[in-house]
Design a protein that fits this description.
Number of strands: 16
CATH superfamily: HIT-like
Shape: globular
CATH architecture: 2-Layer Sandwich
Structural class: alpha+beta
Radius of gyration: 20 Å
Number of domains: 1
Largest sheet: 11 strands, mixed
Number of helices: 6
Length: about 325
């Protein structure tokens, strides 16, 4: 039956989710009702980063006078901006490391254009500057992971309207990434195949959860979606490392990402969302050839309740198949 609840298991992480369509009155209840508030340019801290005390950027495109993209250190960083070796310490029975690494802000010039609306050249240069920064921090052998993410809207955690992105260069591998890496390695050990390549092939054949494709990228709603209308964007070529991705493939990924965000905007009333990149770690390159880098998009249109928090099992109230159908239009 179409509205019957299901327990579905993620093929990579092994996590279980509950697909419970009966808990939703109708799929369009998730459509944003209020119009997005556009913050004025006047007083925007990112309109002129240097005037607001940020100093010269770490990287800039094309130059500081006519900049379209720049990377600056976050004034309120999660990690201390230190390019030194983290030290493992012990406090009684507990291990900890000093919170050292880098926390960058990446700003695009146009106050009104988020990633979905960037022109193709600027979007490509943005991804190329991500790659350049990753290669810079990878030279520090004590940094283990490079995490890129974008918060769009207050419900997604964006405190400033002006489109911007964040990068954390970490001395640890984040737990969610570690589970993804371990699941990918486990599948490869058993089947001698990339689990994400297998998922791509299955979704292309099934078409039930397919949202968009081009020659270089594919977008689908995950079989075990943790969020309503969650999306995954994969390069169709097996590539473990985002920073080593060729320009042709980047263009395909950017096209797929922009098309996906525009579909969310059109069909869900411009929801707030987060997108982030999962790529293989910075060090031990030969260890992670089984991995397949990708982008995850999570619209922020619901809140966690006691069941989710207490069990770690997410409840999704729109079937991924129905979500894909709605987003395809």
């Amino acid at each position: 039956m179409a509205n019957t609840s299901e327990l579905r298991q993620d093929l990579v992480s092994g996590d279980w989710v509950v697909i419970a369509p009966k808990r939703a009155q109708r799929p369009d209840q998730f459509k944003r009702k209020e119009k997005r508030k556009i913050a004025p340019i006047k007083g925007c801290l990112f309109e002129d980063p240097q005037k607001n005390g940020n100093g010269d950027p770490i990287l800039v495109y094309p130059d500081l006078k006519k900049w379209k993209i720049q990377i600056i250190p976050n004034k309120y960083p999660v990690l201390a901006h230190r390019n030194i070796r983290p030290r493992i310490n012990l406090k009684g029975i507990y291990n900890f490391e000093n919170g050292e690494g880098f926390h960058d802000i990446v700003i695009t010039r146009n106050h009104y254009k988020n990633f979905a609306h960037l022109d193709k050249k600027t979007a490509l240069e943005l991804f190329k500057i991500f790659q350049k920064r990753e290669k810079m921090v990878a030279k520090n052998k004590y940094l283990k992971y490079f995490f890129i993410f974008h918060n769009w809207g207050q419900k997604a955690g964006a405190s400033i309207f002006h489109p911007h992105y964040q990068i954390l260069s970490l001395p640890i591998i984040p737990p969610d990434v570690a589970r993804s890496l371990e699941g990918s390695a486990r599948f490869y050990k058993s089947h001698k195949k990339c689990v994400h390549c297998e998922m791509e092939e299955f979704e292309l054949e099934s078409k039930k959860r397919l949202v968009y494709k081009n020659k270089d990228a594919i977008v689908f709603t995950p079989f075990a979606s943790k969020e309503p209308f969650e999306l995954r964007v994969f390069p169709r070529k097996h590539l473990p490392y985002f920073e080593n991705t060729d320009e042709k493939t980047l263009k395909g990924i950017i096209d797929a990402l922009q098309k996906s965000l525009l579909k969310l905007e059109k069909n869900l009333g411009d929801p707030d969302y987060i997108f982030f990149i999962h790529t293989a770690p910075l060090q031990n390159k030969k260890k992670y050839t089984h991995y397949h880098w990708h982008i995850e998009i999570q619209p922020k249109i619901r809140f966690f309740g006691g069941f989710e928090v207490g069990t770690g099992i997410d409840i999704t109230m729109v079937k991924p198949e129905q979500a894909a159908k709605i987003l395809r239009g």
